[in-house]
Design goal:
The protein has 107 residues and is α+β, with helices and mostly antiparallel strands. Helix content is 11%, strand content 25%. It has two helices and five strands.
Amino acid sequence: MEMVDIRLFGKLRRFVKEPQAGHDNLMRIAPQPEETLEQLLARIGIPLDEIYTIFLNSKLLASRSLMAYRMGYQQVHENPLDWNLEVALKEGDRIGLFGRDMAALVV
């Protein structure tokens, strides 16, 4: 079965319904065919307004400040402030979601 890993940090951990052994912040989800990250987050019930920063496969996808951009992270899009989450997911993708309470960890 094709899966993507989603790691949730800070208060976002409360969305993990069935923690993986030894990983209380990890969700393994099977994406639907051609599902985007935005659609997946809506399906699993994680509100975008609670997310401060998103990483996709260790690259900065979206952030609510330019600090992560200025720190030189590799990026998915040219402008991480535009919150374009219309990225099609594929097997093996790794997503990191940092809540607003974890903003300082990203820098």
